[in-house]
Amino acid sequence: MQLSVLILAGGRSRRMGQDKVWMPLDGVPLVARVVRRVLPVAGEILFSANDGERFQAMAATLAAEGVSSRVVADLFPGAGPLAGIHAGLLAAQHDLLLAVAADMPFVNLALIRHMAGLAEGFDAVVPRWRAGHTGEPKWEPLHALYRPRCAPVIAARLATDQRQVISFLSDVRTRPITAAEVARHDPDGLSFYNINTLADWQRAQALLAHAGMPAGTLS
């Protein structure tokens, strides 16, 4: 299985106070850790980022290692991650695009492979996971699979200034991955753990250092 993998790194890191994707996590920049985790399923790596020059350098390093990689530019500048997904879909060389936020260090390949195995006949495959104190499942669209045919539907939403990432899911054939399905591969839902604050970063560092974490989840 080879996917086009889009790393969404356009956030402004307001709560962190610095560009979080370049902060070292266990000695490795956060975005580099995400890239290395998805490489086994990546036919190519695409970057959606504000800091194009820095990511161009990362793309060049990956290309030198034999990994097709490049930075893609939004056609709807300033419209957030949905615009990044749109740009990634237009640039993708494969029929399935895995969109992953650059601040999610615990991407789970078993879950991704499960999702890809269910993608036949669907335009989007999007997990739902328990959130907050209520435990109500919510969509996780920044850890999801999309087909290029989603691009015009997304463009129609963006053209009317609808920027919510899940805004278009009702317009395409979407396969939800239930929380129970996620739990079979990722019992703690760490795939969706994202780093926004220093406390989040410290917890991630502690998780990496915890010898009892499930094999294959964090390594």
Q: What's the CATH architecture name?
A: Alpha-Beta Complex
What is the multimeric organization of the chains shown? Answer: single chain
Shape: globular
- What's the number of extended β-strand segments? 10
Q: What is the total number of structural domains?
A: 1
**Fraction of helical residues:** 25-40%
Text of the CATH class: Alpha Beta
What is the CATH H-level superfamily? Answer: Spore Coat Polysaccharide Biosynthesis Protein SpsA, Chain A
Distance between the termini: 20 Å
Global structural class: alpha/beta
| Count of helical regions | 7
Which ranges are low-confidence, i.e. pLDDT below 50, for 5 or more consecutive residues? 211-219
Spell out the blueprint of helices and strands:
Elements: E1 3-9, E2 24-25, E3 28-29, H1 30-38, E4 42-49, H2 52-64, E5 69-71, H3 81-91, E6 97-101, H4 109-117, E7 124-131, E8 136-139, E9 143-146, H5 151-159, E10 174-177, H6 179-185, H7 198-209
Parallel strand pairs: 1-4, 1-6, 4-5, 7-10
Antiparallel strand pairs: 2-3, 6-9, 7-8, 7-9
